[in-house]
Design goal:
Blueprint lengths: L1 E6 L5 H8 L4 H10 L2 E20 L2 E10 L8 E3 L8 E6 L9 H18 L9 E21 L4 E7 L4 E2 L2 H13 L2
Antiparallel strand pairs: 1-5, 2-3, 2-6, 3-4, 6-7, 7-8
């Protein structure tokens, strides 16, 4: 088992089960298409924290962001401040992908993702754009709930961010499926 430090989840196991199993007509259609909920499990994805500085049009902006340390494919997680000790919990788990993304590559990915965010605000609103990302010597794990539904021949995974209380999409699902299929 691996000992990690995780953000405190805002979703309990029972709440996750309820969220994976809504009632009503849509539940009947979903169960018919994907099968019933079979199992629920926790997953902790490692994130590296970065202090970033964005200089655009003479304006200076500083942010604290986190990038998934598994592949760098997930959206950035933003923080107002470094998580305090009271906002984290120690966890011993096997459900934790290993951090595979090298630090140098992670810096490049963070800068590229932030550049896309700034571009999305308006290409013509940019002038003398400069972005720097400094890795912090802190790894934090974000808790997720996984819902497995289907038959024994075909299983579909659904994911809930246990901090933000929201369902996750295809990026997180692909990361989870890749980890599950390569796990020894």
């Amino acid at each position: 088992m691996t000992r990690i430090r995780s953000l405190k989840p805002n979703v309990t196991r029972d709440e996750a089960i309820r969220q994976f199993s809504p009632r009503g007509p849509s539940a009947l259609i979903r169960d018919a298409a994907f099968g019933p909920l079979r199992s629920v499990a926790e997953l902790y994805i490692p994130f590296h924290l970065f202090r970033v500085q964005i200089m655009n049009r003479g304006l200076f902006e500083e942010r604290l962001v986190a990038l998934d340390a598994v592949s760098g494919t997930l959206d950035l997680y933003q923080f107002e401040y470094l998580p305090a000790e009271a906002e984290t919990v120690p966890v011993e788990t096997r459900n934790c992908p290993s951090a595979e993304l090298p630090d140098a590559a992670a810096v490049d990915v963070v800068v590229a993702k932030l550049r896309r965010i700034v571009y999305s605000r308006g290409f013509f609103r940019m002038r003398n754009l400069h972005i720097t990302a400094v890795p912090l010597a802190l790894e934090i794990h974000i808790p997720y709930w996984l819902g497995f539904r289907g038959s024994e021949n075909r299983v579909r995974v659904s994911v809930i961010d246990a901090v933000r209380r929201r369902p996750e999409g295809a990026k997180v699902r692909r990361l989870v499926e890749a980890w599950l299929t390569t796990k020894p």
